[in-house]
Design goal:
The structure holds two protein chains of two kinds.
Chain A lengths: L1 H28 L4 H5 L12 E5 L6 E6 L5 E6 L3 E6 L4 E7 L5 E6 L5 E6 L3 E6 L6 E7 L5 E6 L4 E6 L3 E6 L4 E7 L5 E6 L5 E6 L4 E5 L5 E5 L6 E6 L5 E6 L4 E5 L4 E6 L8 E6 L5 E6 L4 E5 L4 E6 L6 E5 L7 E5 L4 E4 L1
Antiparallel strand pairs in A: 1-28, 2-3, 3-4, 4-5, 6-7, 7-8, 8-9, 10-11, 11-12, 12-13, 14-15, 15-16, 16-17, 18-19, 19-20, 20-21, 22-23, 23-24, 24-25, 26-27, 27-28
Chain B lengths: L2 H19 L6 H15 L4 H4 L18
Classes of the chains: A mainly beta, B mainly alpha.
Subunit structure (chain B): G proteins are composed of 3 units; alpha, beta and gamma.
GO molecular function, one term (chain B): G-protein beta-subunit binding
GO biological process, one term (chain B): G protein-coupled receptor signaling pathway
């Protein structure tokens, strides 16, 4: 017992030492700020986007939406127990997928456009083929011991999930089995984003930390701190070298992977609502962040200033997305509507 | 939780911290400059920044025209 206690004490000391070492290393490279680098960049001015369409169809709160790679189709999930696939050009509903469990929290479109996946309080991720005559359940991925908060397809054969059981998981859709389980968070995993080269992904969790993972090795490579509450949303900056997070602490932050730290924060004393979702414009210059205050606020990612707002929802904005071609923004809300802006 | 699992958790934590400590870090000024550069280089193609021409807006209702 005494030797165990001695080892525990020495390990704790080692941990503290390593943490101090990491902080010192981060400080050593912290030689400037984003805002000073941004000094020379031109202002974007006031960003005023117009509401182009209000998509009506869901009968209850919308929790999630995801664009297809064709930048035209989009899938939304509502606790009315349905997934709706929309043609955003016409505003028409193309497919309706009835869900076994209405408590959906996340939805995703496969890059091929053939499949969609959803999940929530049922702790499962269900994959549907929407190209068949009527939507067919392809797989029910059942192994998480907590709610499904987020899912993203790598292809028609692999999907990544983030769960309230504090783990993320890579699944093989051909066998329906878990391939790799990513453990390291100590709070519910709320959101994940895949890197463009699909070799890494970032996750945000209720432990207020964001983590970078090696997708194939299953290891956590870097941990980013700074938020003081749950991270609800996470997305890569288009260059792939940074990512943005949105949190219940009412702020968004940009972290750079190569300096291993936060490089700029986005917060305003007048904004007292949690961030639920976020999306970036194609150049990375604009951040569209959905808040509990019923608005989607637009931030200049380089200067850290609020440059616009998308107002129109009558309840919390729960999801935000920019299509691959960057032609617009979609916001989804608890008011049961999806809105398209550009 | 047994003391054994506490110990193994602690060992794992030390290994994880060692991994994270070994990351090679670049200066924030360099990282910031490169992020800026990316924004500037791609600004012209960013429809949400520069605007979408009325005629080719995929989300906008096409106006009907009468050919006289």
């Amino acid at each position: 017992m005494a030797s165990e206690k001695a080892e525990m004490d020495s390990l704790k000391k080692e941990c503290d030492g390593l943490r101090t070492q990491i902080e010192a290393a981060r400080k050593a490279v912290n030689d400037g700020s984003m805002s000073s680098a941004a000094g020379s960049a031109t202002d974007v001015g006031r960003v005023q986007l117009k509401l182009r369409k209000s998509l009506k169809g869901h009968l209850a709160k919308i929790y999630s939406m995801h664009w297809a790679t064709d930048s035209r189709s989009m899938v939304s999930a509502s606790q009315d127990g349905k997934l709706l696939v929309w043609d955003t050009f016409s505003g028409n509903k193309m497919v309706a997928v009835p869900l076994k469990s209405a408590w959906v929290m996340s939805v995703a479109f496969a890059p091929s456009g053939n499949l969609v996946a959803s999940g929530g309080l049922d702790n499962m991720c269900t994959v549907y083929n929407i190209k068949s005559a009527s939507p067919k359940t392809l797989r029910e991925l059942d192994a998480h011991t907590g709610y499904l908060a987020c899912c993203r397809f790598l292809s028609d054969t692999e999907i990544l999930t983030a769960s309230g059981d504090t783990t993320c998981c890579l699944w093989d859709l051909e066998t329906g089995k878990q391939k790799i389980i990513f453990t390291n968070h100590i709070g519910d995993c709320m959101s994940l984003a895949l890197s463009q080269d699909e070799r890494t992904f970032v996750s945000g969790a209720c432990d207020s930390l964001a983590k970078l993972w090696d997708l194939r090795e299953g290891t956590c490579k870097q941990t980013f701190s700074g938020h003081t509450s749950d991270i609800n949303a996470i997305n890569f900056f288009p260059s792939g070298n940074a990512f943005i997070t949105g949190s219940d602490d009412c702020s968004c932050k940009m972290y750079d992977l190569r300096s291993d730290q936060e490089v700029i924060g986005y917060q305003d004393t007048s904004l007292n609502a949690g961030v639920t979702s976020l999306a970036l414009s194609n150049s990375g210059r604009l951040i569209f962040a959905g808040y509990d205050d019923f608005n989607c606020h637009i931030w200049d990612s380089m200067k850290g200033e609020k440059v616009g707002v998308l107002s129109g929802h009558d309840n919390r904005v729960s999801c935000t997305g920019v299509p691959g071609d960057g032609m617009g923004v979609c916001t989804g809300s608890w008011d049961s509507f999806l809105k398209l802006w550009n | 939780m047994t003391s054994n699992s506490n110990l193994s958790n602690m060992r794992r934590l030390v290994e994880q911290l060692k991994l994270e400590a070994s990351v090679e870090r670049i200066k924030v000024s360099q990282a910031a400059a490169e992020l800026q550069q990316f924004c500037l280089q791609n600004a012209a193609k960013d429809a949400l920044l520069v605007g979408v021409p009325t005629g080719s807006n995929p989300f906008r209702e096409p106006r009907s025209c009468a050919v006289v």
